[in-house]
Amino acid sequence: MKVCAGWGAEIEWSRGTIVETNKAAEGLVRLTVDIGELAKGYTKGGQYVQMKVGDSKPAFYAIASAPSPERPIELLLKNQGSTAEILCDSKPGDEVDVSPVMGNGFPLERAAPEQAPHLFIFATGTGISPIKALIESGELQADKRTSVRLYYGTFHPDSTAYRELFTEWEKSGVKVVNVYSGFGDGYVQNVFEKDGGVSDGEQTAVILCGQKEMAEAITAMVEKEGVKKDFILTNF
Fold first, then answer.
1. What is the mean pLDDT of residues 121-148?
2. CB within 10 Å: which end of the chain, N or C, has fewer?
C-alpha cells in the first residue's frame, strides 16, 4: 500500500512487529521493533523511519540502535501524540506499519578525526536517540579524536533516557555532560558557554540533534568561534 505521508513523500508501508516495550525514563518508552528486510536499509546513525498503526497519523522516529541488518531496531518515544501513545501502549507481537529506513544520517565523513580532533555533541530530549546509535556503532571514532563531549539536556534525572549507559559511553571516549533545566542548570547552550565553548574552531566539529532553538543558538556560537559550516552536522 502506498500513501502520501509526512513531507508529502509517497510511502510504501510494510508490516513490522513489536518485540519489546519498556520504560526508558519519565514519559519516555523504549520500543524494539522487528522490521525484517527493511533493516538492511539502515546503514548510518541518524537515519529514521515513519510508523503508524491503522489509520493513525504517521510519525517520524530516529533509530536509537546501531545499524545491523540482522537485529530489530530500537526507538525512543515520548508518550505524547496519537500514534506515539498507541505505540507506547503496544504489546509484544502487535503489528505496526513502518516505512523504509529514510534519511542520509549524520555526514561524519565530512569531519574525520584528523580534520576535527575535537567533537562536541548536543542533544535534547528524545534527540539522544540517533546520538546513541552513533556512539554504539563506533561512527564517531571517539578513540581517534582528542576530545569528544556530549551535552545532553533534559528536565531532570528521572526524565533522562539511557542513564544506565553513560558509564560505557564514557569508557568509549565520550564525556557526558548532563544539563537539567529543572534543576536550574539552564539549557545546553548556557552550560556550553559557561564551560568556555570552543577553543580551537578550525579543528572542531559539532553534531546537533534536538530543539530548534538550541541548534540555532549553538550554531551561532560555534560559527563565531571559527567552526566551519561543513563541520556543523545534522541528520536532516
1. 97
2. N
List of residues 6+ apart from 167 with CB closer than 8 A:
none
In this predicted structure, the answer to whether residue 5 has a pLDDT above a threshold of 80 is: no
Alpha carbon distance 28, 77 (integer Å): 6
CA distance 224 to 228: 10
**Three cell numbers, residue 152:** 545532553
Neighbours of 150 (CB within 10 A): 24
**CA–CA separation, 232 and 108 (whole Å):** 10
Predicted confidence (pLDDT) per residue in 220-235, tens digit:
999 999 999 999 999 9
Measured from the Cβ of residue 122, the count of other Cβ atoms closer than 10 Å reads 28
Domains and CATH numbers, the chain: 2-98 (2.40.30.10), 108-233 (3.40.50.80)
Asked if 145 and 135 touch (Cβ cutoff 8 Å), the reply is no
pLDDT(4) > 50? no
Whether 137 contacts 108, CB under 8 Å: no
